[in-house]
Write a structure and sequence with these properties.
Layout: E1 2-7, E2 12-19, E3 28-36, H1 43-61, E4 65-69, H2 78-97, E5 101-105, H3 107-115, H4 122-132, H5 142-162
Parallel strand pairs: 1-4, 4-5
Antiparallel strand pairs: 1-2, 2-3
Length: 163
């Protein structure tokens, strides 16, 4: 199973691909990175760029699953949720068009899965991902660590269900 975790954004969209072999629970990190979108472009132009870049990733990485965080809206920043909803919509559409299974996970579930704390900070997630995959340094920017964490949580959940 190959799980592509995606942390949506309209400036930076992090991604992380993990693989779990049959009978195993712990995934291996295959690739991670960030899609950088033109901050000066309109929202529509950035969404089109995200769709194009994500289509390329799906073609190249051939995931069996795409995992993305569920939408969360903080009362103090409702606009952020709306903007993230646009990016999530593009991600879900691209995965659906390619026939890739989609899993949506809550942020607290992802954080708890990796750090043991559902309210972990970005830095704690980065350090946990670094430790989990024995990386020389924490993934940067944090969007990459978040994407790897999302993929890891989804892969573990699916691996346990398959046992």
């Amino acid at each position: 199973m190959r799980v592509l975790g995606i942390d949506p954004g309209l400036r930076l969209t992090g991604y992380g691909l993990v693989r779990v072999r049959a009978g195993a629970i712990e995934p291996a990190l295959i690739e991670a990175g960030v899609v950088k979108l033109d901050a000066k472009a309109s929202v529509a132009e950035r969404l089109a760029q995200l769709a194009e870049d994500l289509d390329g990733l799906l073609e190249t990485l051939s995931p069996t699953h795409v995992a993305v965080e569920k939408l969360f809206a903080h009362y103090a920043h409702p606009r952020t949720a709306i903007v993230m909803g646009h990016a999530r919509g593009v991600i879900l559409l691209c995965a659906q068009r390619r026939g890739v299974a989609i899993t949506e996970l809550g942020a607290t579930e992802v954080k708890k899965s990796l750090t043991g704390n559902g309210h972990a900070s970005k830095e704690q997630v980065q350090r946990s991902v670094q430790h989990q995959y024995r990386l020389a340094e924490p993934p940067h920017p944090p969007d990459v660590a978040d994407a790897i964490a999302i993929a890891t949580c989804c892969a573990r959940r699916a691996a346990v269900a398959a046992l």
